[in-house]
Design brief:
690 residues, alpha/beta, ABC transporter transmembrane region fold, Rossmann fold, 2 domains, four-stranded antiparallel β-sheet, 11% strand
Length: 690
């Protein structure tokens, strides 16, 4: 399978060659994507043939002019030849426009099909896949590799076919004119091939080095030009230092670029000189034939023109195999993503109930984030570390990545020094069970509070219920239906989730709210925002609901983002709520507003809440106490205190101080020191969920 075996199932290597060899399986699959465009491709081939034939006509016009029109003072023939010299390029150009339209429509059609297939496939992947894969690698597949695949169709293949036909037609007409001169012209070919191979090796080394420098420069920009990176640079006053680092890396890119340009210029100078030598030799021998054997001057001039037309395709075709193989690599990298196994998918007989009451059961559920602990009936998806080949103009290509590094014991992984492309995914390998044999039941409409130390498994439970992950063992049921028997779209419709880290798109407040219900009316939007205590704040902004919240909602405070997220869930109106209360780092006023909003949204719904506040725990119908992935205690507040176990200790160290603070604030009416936005300075909670 490509997803695990890498792209070597498609691409074979020869140590004596500087390029990969393509398998038939890959070619057949690529042809499958071209099949919808066969009509346009056939027409495009027709234009290639027409252009190749029309290109052969001008030298014949020159020969006719020199051998017949001028010696015979034939004005009529002269006029026709003049019109032909204008009409042939015009017709050639018009056909070229048609060819460009056809190649562009085929190429853009293929790139659309590939991008849509890729994006659709990625949307079906589980959350585990995204936590194990770097975003940069996915963006590379969607952008660079798809564009490379498009170039294979619109540029590489077109160039090979066009040059091949031009070469065949040109050789045919040259042989018909003078076979000895034709053999001499072909004999010059080694002058093209040898410099191409020798200089190509130098250019490959330079290109590899430049790409390493480019990756380092891009990584620096990635880290420092996003919102979080820019904030860190400014807070520590490191702008001059980062500018110096960027200048150093950009200078490396500049220097290697200059070397590439100079060597490339020398290379093309050599090719031009080889072409000039070939043309001169042909004219020299042709001149002797004119003087001795009666070869016409017009034939010699026409033949010389054909020689110049011959060397262009010959030079291009010398590296055509390399270019074609390199272009096919882009297709293979795209296919690797399309072949990734879907860990969590709908069963064929999955159902989508219209109504869910919210009866939730966890039955002996165990779960591990480690790949090796996944149930044997499921395959995990991961992108392999592929070897990339970078094209440099028309020159040969080379691999960019190195084998996965190992430590001193030959093991690969995070303990080994990494020298590969920075966008390759890094998969955590530390063994860990997040949940072990957890069983509990929540009745419809009940409030379940999850408490426990950091890393106890609370967040894992909230991820398993909407089936973001699949249990390693055990079963989860909703209304007596196993989650695997319910469609994923149905779970999404009936389960609403507010995470501790609120995510908003770089769009308007209205657009972020409509993400929960695309057809919501303005009245429904405002009603949800009032329930979340955010409506008045939104109206106070100049653009109201059309206000753009910025990257990840950065233009809003933590409390404002959280209330927008709560309004979004209220607008969705789900049957089951999964909440990670993110109030421990907020000021008292924002916290009170969010608590009030949460109480409204939980009313009458089954709710699973990772509780950070004592008020939520006291209101819970059932409290689950987790430690190291095990369910160690369960019950109501008073029952758990009486057991004098882990919950009692958590109550004394975490929840009781919160109650004392609330009592003190009610007595003093204080809110704590606030900033200009009305919120107290916030710092991460030392007991926040890990």
């Amino acid at each position: 399978m490509v997803g695990h075996g890498g792209w070597h199932s498609y691409i074979r290597y020869d140590e004596n060659q500087d390029h990969p060899a393509i398998s038939r399986a890959l070619l057949r699959r690529v042809a499958g994507y071209a099949r919808p465009y066969l009509g346009r491709i056939a027409l495009m081939l027709g234009t290639i043939i027409a252009i190749s034939l029309l290109t052969l006509v001008p030298p014949l016009l020159y020969r006719n002019l020199i051998d017949y029109a001028l010696p015979n003072r034939d004005y009529g023939r002269l006029n026709l030849l003049a019109l032909g010299m204008i009409g042939i390029p015009l017709l050639n150009g018009l056909i070229g426009v048609l060819q460009r339209f056809l190649s562009a429509s085929v190429g853009e059609g293929v790139i659309f099909d590939l991008r849509l297939a890729l994006f659709t496939r990625l949307q079906s992947m589980s959350l585990r896949f995204f936590t194990n894969t770097k975003t940069g690698e996915l963006m590379s597949r969607l952008n660079n590799d798809v564009v490379g695949a498009q170039q294979a169709v619109t540029s590489t293949l077109l160039s090979i076919v066009s040059n091949g036909m031009s070469l065949v037609f040109t050789l045919a007409i040259m042989l018909s004119m003078e076979w000895r001169l034709t053999l001499l012209a072909v004999a010059i070919l080694p002058l093209f091939v040898l410099p191409s191979r020798r200089v190509g090796r130098v250019l490959r080394r330079l290109t590899r080095q430049q790409l390493i420098y480019n990756a380092q420069m891009n990584a620096l920009m990635n880290e420092t030009l996003n919102v979080s990176g820019a904030l860190l640079v400014k807070l520590f006053g490191r702008a001059p230092h980062e500018t110096e680092r960027f200048a150093s890396r950009a200078a490396d890119v500049r220097d290697t670029g200059i070397q590439q340009a100079i060597i490339g210029r020398w290379f093309f100078l050599g090719l031009s000189l080889a072409g000039a030598i070939g043309t001169a030799v042909v004219f020299w021998l042709g001149g002797i034939l004119v003087l001795r054997e009666g070869l016409t001057i017009g034939t010699l001039v026409a033949f010389g023109t054909y020689v110049t037309q011959l060397y262009g395709p010959l030079s291009s075709l010398t590296n055509s195999r390399v270019e074609f193989a390199t272009s096919m690599v882009s297709f293979e990298r795209v296919f690797e993503v399309l072949d990734l196994p879907v860990e969590i998918a709908d069963r064929p007989e999955a159902i989508a109930p219209r109504r869910i009451s919210g009866h939730v059961v966890f039955d002996d559920v165990s779960f591990s984030y480690r790949e090796g602990d996944v149930a044997p009936d499921r395959e995990l998806a991961s992108l392999t570390e592929v070897e990339r080949w970078q094209r440099h103009g028309s020159d040969m290509d080379m691999p960019l990545s190195q084998p996965r590094p190992t430590d001193g014991n030959g093991r690969s992984g995070p303990d080994a020094e990494t020298v590969v492309d920075e966008t390759v995914c890094a998969i955590p390998t530390a063994p860990r069970w997040a949940l072990r044999h957890v069983s509990f039941e929540v009745q419809p409409g009940q409030l379940l509070a999850l408490v426990g130390p950091s890393g106890a498994g609370k967040t894992t439970i909230t991820y398993l219920l909407p089936r973001l992950y699949e249990p390693t063992t055990g079963h989860i049921r909703i209304d007596e239906h196993d989650l695997r028997d319910l469609r994923l779209s149905s779970l999404s419709d009936h389960i609403g989730m507010v995470t501790q880290e609120t995510y908003l798109f770089h769009d308007t407040i209205r657009a972020n709210l409509l993400y929960a219900k695309a057809n919501a009316t303005q009245e429904e939007i405002e009603s949800a925002c009032r329930a979340a205590h955010i409506h008045d704040f939104i109206l106070s902004m100049p653009q109201g609901y059309e206000t753009v919240v910025g990257e990840r909602g950065y233009r809003l405070s933590g409390g404002e983002k959280q209330r927008v997220a709560i309004a979004r869930v209220i607008l969705k109106n789900p049957s089951i709520l999964v909440l990670d209360e993110a109030t421990s780092s907020l000021d008292s006023e924002s916290e009170a507003l969010i608590q009030s909003a949460l109480e409204k949204v939980m009313r009458g719904r089954t709710s699973l809440v990772i509780a950070h506040r004592l008020s939520t725990i006291l209101a819970a119908d059932l409290i689950l106490v987790l430690e190291n992935g095990y369910l160690v205690e369960s019950g109501r507040h008073e029952e758990l205190l009486a057991k004098n176990g882990l919950y009692a200790r958590l109550y004394q160290t975490q929840f009781r101080p919160d109650r004392d603070r609330e009592v003190e604030e009610k007595a003093t009416g204080g809110k704590g020191e606030e900033d200009e936005s009305g919120e107290a300075p916030s710092f991460p909670s030392p007991t926040g969920e890990g």
